[in-house]
Request: fold
Amino acid sequence: MYVRKVGARVLDFGHRGWLLDESFIFYDRKYDSLWVQATGLCISGKFQGERLATVPVTHTTWGQWRSLHPTTLVLAKPKNLVDRYRRDAYGPYYERRGTRFGLAVFVGNQQKLYPLDQLHANPVVHDQVGGEPVLVVYHAPTQTAVGLRPIVAGKPISLELAEVTADDVLLRAPGREAIWSGLTGRSRADGAAADRLAQLRTTQFVVANWPRHFPGSPIYTAPAAE
Reply:
């Protein structure tokens, strides 16, 4: 998900169906500049070389999202299109191709990809991206991955797996009574804002396409089982 503002201009985008390295190309309607969906980079036109800013995103099921965020408002779909959105139309295509997905984590101008199949046996990963600490949490039942900044009151915190529930991954820190939601970053002790972990800028990404759009950027591999 991108911020559609470049400098002082707010752009309105459209999609013509073009592809570049298996990524959609979209355009801004006023200047007709071309942008790569996978990276937010403008590759042609007035803003060539500019990159759209990203915002934190959680890719999950609607049922799980409602469980974690029950007051969420949703833009209603036209009634004649509701059935179309009950399933992923590309699901059979991905299955035939054996497409693998990962969580791309962005910190500053650095990024790293965490393949979901590498997180199954290790759903809580402490790592670094661009020299900054990151925490990647994976909920296997809904294939939901989230990137968090493991900082509380200005200090790094080490969290470990406490329990995987039907709709969350619960975390605890040694010596603390609080339990954190790994998918929202909220502390379940007293709800104090200071104990909420900030969500990092992330998006789901096709593993095979990662080197095409971010050449040289690392891909996480789970440590071998002992």
Observations:
- The mean pLDDT is 88.
- The two ends are 38 Å apart (CA to CA).
